[in-house]
Amino acid sequence: MIGDKGIDAKVQPEEWVEVVQIIRDGIVGGDLASGLVAGIEKCGELLHRRGVEIREDDTDELPDGVRVRDE
User: Fold this and answer.
1) What domain range is 17 assigned to?
2) pLDDT exceeds 70 at position 1
3) Which residues contact 44 (CB under 8 A, 6 or more apart)?
4) Can you give the chain as a three-state secondary structure string?
5) Least C-beta-crowded within 10 Å: which of 1, 39, 47, 48?
6) How many domains does the chain divide into?
7) Spatial distance between the Cα atoms of 53 and 65, rounded to a whole number of angstroms
8) 17 found inside a domain
9) In whole angstroms, what is the distance from residue 46 CA to residue 19 CA?
């Protein structure tokens, strides 16, 4: 996962492992939607715990579309 500059400064790459696993479990279990919802909720918990808050002057540095990497 790739965070914007503010998130990337506070959350280490290894902290995203649980989020990825939750989403992967949803995919493997045949329930992508629930996996994504649970993963997004876990992202919110992680960001809150790390003190990442929405600021009024915040800018969106990355596109919001979903990107899929071919392996």
Assistant:
1) 5-49
2) no
3) none
4) CCCCHHHHHHCCHHHHHHHHHHHHHHHHCCCHHHHHHHHHHHHHHHHHHCCCCCCCCCCCCCCCCCCCCCC
5) 48
6) 1
7) 22
8) yes
9) 9
